[in-house]
Amino acid sequence: MAAIDNIFHSLLKKEVYASGQVKSFPAGTVILNFNAYIKSIPIVLSGSIKVIRTDNHGNEILLYYIKPSESCIMSFLAGIHNDTSKIKAVAEEASEVLLIPVSKASEWIKEFPEWTDFIFTLYQKRFEELLEVVNSIAFQKVDARLLHLLRQKSILFQSKQISVTHQQLADELGITREAVSRVLKKMEREELIALARNKISLM
Prior knowledge:
The protein is of the alpha+beta class. The chain is built from eight helices and ten strands. It has helices at 2-7, 10-19, 73-80, 102-111, 113-139, 142-157, 166-173, 177-189; strands at 21-25, 30-32, 40-46, 49-54, 60-66, 88-91, 95-101, 161-163, 193-196, 199-202.
């Protein structure tokens, strides 16, 4: 668990190793569902998890990605308050995750300043990412939002060739598949991307 070695030290690292349970999730696995009670806090060791908000009609929008050495602050906040999840977490790719019991995560706030720093750093990062989501929905056109999402995925997968369907992009942006297809074709004409079956390459 090299990711843990990189972020925690000494006594806290021993506690994390002793208390956590490592689980592997294939791509597409729902790790946490909307309205579920949270029993453990995830720390991603490898792969990535996308965090999605779902409305009452089943429409979804991507909030942020959880990458190696990161956790989900929304799960943490809901878990320590014994509240249900307001998000859905799905493995974006095959992922290995360390699950920390909520009781331990809560205790460590009082015992380990290092853990508190970790949580507050995550909180700031996620807050800034959520502001970007609000900004993109309120002020950016669909083409700018779509290009930003593709660049996010390119960084995540460390490749300019992205395996994704038009429907997946539509779900993550909260728009129709037809709108995504129309904008992608426009972006291809502008030589920003190259389209293939279930693949998009950034130029």
